[in-house]
Amino acid sequence: MRSRPSTLVRILPLKFFGVIPLYLGVEVILGITILNKAGGVYGFFSLITGHPINFWQWVYNFLCVAVLPVYVSSLMNVTTKGNTKKFSLCCITYVLDTIIGLFFTLHFGLWWYFTEGNVNYGERSRTSDSVAMHFKRANQIGSSSSQKYTEPQMPMPTYGESSLSRETFIILASTIVVTLFRLYFTLAIVSFTRLLLKQESVARRSSERNEVQAQGFEVYDEGDGWIAWIKYEFRHLRDDLEHHSKHLLDRYFAIQP
Amino acid sequence: MAAATYTSKFPGPFPRDTATGLQSNETGLNVPKGVTLPSSFSNGSDSLSDHLYSGGSNPMNNNYHLLERTELTSASSSASSSSSPSSLSSSSSVFLRVYKVIHYYFLLEKDPNSRLSELNFDTNIIVNLNYLKRYEWSTGDIIHYGFLVLILLFCFLIFPASFLVKFPIIALFGLMFAIPLTSQFFLPALPIFTWLALFFSCAKIPVTWRLPISVRFLPAFETVMYGDNLSSVLAAFTHPVLDILAWLPYGIIHFSVPFVVAALIFIFGPPTSLRAYGFAFGYMNLFGVIMQLLFPAAPPWYKLNNGLAPANYSMGGSPGGLARIDDIVGFDMYTSTFTNAPVPFGAFPSLHSGCAVMECLFLIWLFPKLKFVWCGYVMWLWWCTMYLTHHYFIDLIGGAVLSLCVFTYTSYVHLPIRLPNKFCRWSYTEILFIDYHEINPLTVSVSALNSESDIENRGGLYSQVSGSSSRVGIDNYEMTSLPRSLTSNIPIADDVDSASSTTELSPPSVFDMDAHTLESTTSLEDFVSTTNGTQTGKGYKIRM
User: Fold this and answer.
1) Which of A12, A42, A143 is the best mutation test for B, with the most CBs of B within 10 A?
2) Which residue windows are transmembrane per the record (chain B) (predicted)?
3) Cβ within 8 Å, pair A123-B511
4) Exposure check for chain B: N or C terminus, fewer CB within 10 A?
5) Predicted complex ipTM exceeds 0.90
């Protein structure tokens, strides 16, 4: 058990990009992640707009929204003392999210390649066709006005045209670079969580205070109503997940309690 | 005792609107009787700054403090009264009435001994020129101003106007930077001016210099990363009501919010926070335009109109969904503007998103309790940009990430700490900045954590952060007079002790709602002087 983390520890970053304190990097990483996950909310709008999305897109959007509370909660507590449980849950969520995200990237990449990736210049992509029709129809409302959406002009052979190979290269390179960044961000989160756990363990031992902090579980009273019940259940689930996450990571990093 | 003299870490060669925590007593006008200024204030203050901000020659200051004393008397006699003071009731001037209201609710907060919140009304150019001569340029200053001057020089050369037109404009701007009254606003806004200059010069850059326009990248990358083209999802259904809902933030609110946020920061934020906003807002937009120039990319409306056909610089822009707004209102509000846009193929990153996120982050910092409202505004604006087919989701994320990075840097380097017990700009008697080394939750060096034995030999982790704690600021405030907002929040001594003994040290984070509920120590040992200020050992610095 001890040998496994040591391999990982060697590649964990101790500073964000070698210079920035790790906790600052974690703040930025979580901020970026939260912004990215907001895309899931807009994906659900397809229910209203009628834009077709497939099963895997639904799953992706759902997962994005589901992990948002974990990241938001962690971001609010980056510098808070005693945040090890919260970050344990965040760390495990982030690792799983990254692994699942890589599969989704691969899946969506292949899907894009076979639907749009080999569409020649001048052709409309299948996905944009219906939108373009709708868009133009919408613009014809109030057609008496002179302010019309102008018909597309045929591109003149002039400066600025990008070649297919250049575009494809940029798409592939960007995907690889973003994926590498994502892996690095995951390592930074793992490193930060590991150091927090280690620090807490050392502090506990050195101060000879082995007592576990009493968890202030609130007791649900039936008279409080169903909203209170939901809150109680949510907090209970969150505390439970955080506790188990910390226990799991303590074992993984071979940190003595 | 609080820091007496404040010198901004913010890069700049000219003196700013605040120089010292206390005003000079040479004028004898603004120091109440019985108040003795500590000698350290006069010793530590800069003579030029004293000259600049003495206020003795400023009639507004005299009137102000005359009023303030009257107000104080009136307010103390009826503390809970909401009516305005009666000393100036004989005057029927609307201006005076407005001034009285502002005075009652804001200026009365001001400590009469503190000049931190005052503006500089000096118009003597010599003062700034002398200051410039004596100014010691740091590496940060050179990078900051060197970069901005290079961009401005590029705009100056590229803009196709006669030198007879350009030089007077440059001279006028130079004058604004030379006069202390105007330079206190123009200098912090220099990144914003640079961004505007570059943005409006973009169209004048020769096409032979420009890079190829990417048409396929953004929709493809968005599909790979997010599983779909979200702009297509949101633009698939249009309705006039949705058009109006999309137009309001995208076409109207977006252009006015930066000014509103600036005004709110000036009024409710600590002194110097508006400079941080100007710095962050300007640099975010400047970096955004540079990225748009280096990576030209077509917005969603291009794909809807032209498919994946290559774009070129002979093509104009398009109003996208805003053309429907022109139809609704019946006149050309956007079509011409967007058709002749300076950067028609500048989809990535979205500066609409960047601005909205920047405003959101500053508003969360300023009014954390309303954070859901500010985040809701960002979500609303994101929906608008995609619905109106002006940006892909990846553009929005690009702008938002750019904003986040610039804001994070600004918040840890330039942005003062907003104290929850301070009501407005005039409530502050000192300015605190986050010390990002001190609030690091990993309080022991990383290498030490990797070898636990080292830590144990050092006698434990928290020996390094031990120390008595009490609420910060209480011991640091000048106790000669206390603003209203402070008096209601000062715990009595017993409360301070009990609060400090039960509260664990929780360093502030800029993202934390209660981030800046500070804790400090009364112990002098924690006040370790550094070059940039005084480290308190509790997560913030007082600039000396």
Assistant:
1) A42
2) 142-163, 169-200, 207-227, 247-269, 276-295, 343-365, 372-390, 396-415
3) no
4) N
5) no
